[in-house]
Amino acid sequence: MSREQLIEMAKINMAHGDAGTIPQTDDVLKVPVGNYFETARWQQEINKIFKRVPLMLAMTAELKEPGDYKAMNAGGVPVLISRTENGEVKAFVNMCAHRGAQVMDEGCGNANRFTCPYHAWSYSGDGALIGIYAPKDFGEIDKSQYGLTELPCLEKAGLIWVTIDPKSTLDIALFLSGYDDLLAHFGFEKWHHFASQVVEGPNWKIAYDGYLDLYHLPILHKDTFGSDFPNQAIYYSWGPHQRVAGPMKGMAKMLGDSEEDWPTEYLTAGVWTIFPHISIAGFDGGGRAVMLSQLFPGETPGTSYTVQHYLMAEEPKDEATVKAARDQLDFLRYVVAEEDYATGLKQQKAMETGAKEHVLFGRNEAGGHNFHSWVDTILETSDEDLPKLFQTG
Ligand code: FES
Ligand SMILES: [Fe+2]
């Protein structure tokens, strides 16, 4: 069923490519510039978006074996994700029940148990408190009441979503709105995690707007990769999640009539974004690969950081392939830091002058329309009504 959806989209892309057209929104959208820098607005976005909706925090490729774990800072919240003995994935607040130390240092690894660096209390991979240092001296407590605080978590399509509110009842599968079935065509659960790196950027929405935007490719990126790219984009959405495809002329002729032979690489081409903060874009450094970019708000409204993960369909087996992957990753850091985010940091400064009340998203920039409308809608929605937003998705 989902392959049929991929084929349907491919046909739409081909038809637009050959006709030189794109679907357009009805109007040009105005977004108030304050949405990108006002502190109250930004705090709301953290509380109502980042702390309420599931975030794609890790990839199966980072946690393949029982005992594998990942400790990370998810926009200010320390999170610990673990592959338990029986192979399922669980997520916790990375906070010791004793006096609140962070149990594991940031990074990935494999451990039989999680031992707190402060007074050596230890936890099993599924979060149970299993050891107290000098228990006779400490005094009696009921260990079963002092495990790590568990967070809602779901592993699908080789990706791992976590909601960083332990009390959240929002069903993660519901939030995904069927998009995970499409993402499953990449087969990420079998892919190799090559490396990750961090790039600092402007307000998270200025940064994210760029991932939904193909209009800028032949202009801002003309000296790196953009000169051969069309500036047009076609957007498809599942709930708040959007795939962006560039229409290309002559594809129908090139691929021929037998749809069942159309390669998955072509059917999944383009940029796959996952609301509110992920972009997955295909590359070819060291063989088939994607750059999975994970954005988080920084310490202030005008800052964000992006973790760039490089995932490869095959683990590189020789030095030349490793070098090709490394070069691709270095290139992507350059493009994002020196072109996208350098521009974004200047947008940030310019917007803060108040010289203009709005910025504009054209009829060709439907991705921005969808994204900002979802942001606004979620901010206005109560906890109780939040699941209803995704039921029709
Ligand atoms: S704070 Fe973790 S053992 Fe004391
Ligand atoms: Fe860009």
How would you describe what is shown here?
By secondary structure, this protein is of the alpha+beta class. The protein has two domains: 2-53 and 177-391, Naphthalene 1,2-dioxygenase Alpha Subunit, Chain A, domain 1 (Alpha-Beta Complex); 55-169, Rieske [2Fe-2S] iron-sulphur domain (Rieske Iron-sulfur Protein). It has twelve helices and 20 strands. 40% of the residues are buried. The model has no long low-confidence stretch (mean pLDDT 96). FE2/S2 (inorganic) cluster binds at residues 96, 98-99, 101, 116, 118-119, 121.
CATH architecture of the largest domain: Alpha-Beta Complex
Derived structural class: alpha+beta
**Cα radius of gyration in angstroms:** 22 Å
Tell me, what's the shape? globular
Give the CATH level 1 class of the largest domain.
Alpha Beta
N/C terminus separation: 16 Å
| DSSP summary: helix tally | 12
Task: Write the CATH homologous superfamily of the largest domain.
Answer: Naphthalene 1,2-dioxygenase Alpha Subunit, Chain A, domain 1
The number of domains: 2
Helix content bin:
25-40%
- The overall pLDDT average reads 96
Count of extended strands: 20
* Attached small molecules: FE2/S2 (inorganic) cluster, fe (ii) ion
Please name the CATH topology of the largest domain: Naphthalene 1,2-dioxygenase Alpha Subunit, Chain A, domain 1
Q: Which residues form runs of ≥5 with pLDDT under 50? A: none
User: Main β-sheet: number of strands, strand sense, barrel status?
Assistant: 7 strands, antiparallel
Strand order of the largest sheet: 13-19-18-17-16-15-14
Strand content: 25-35%
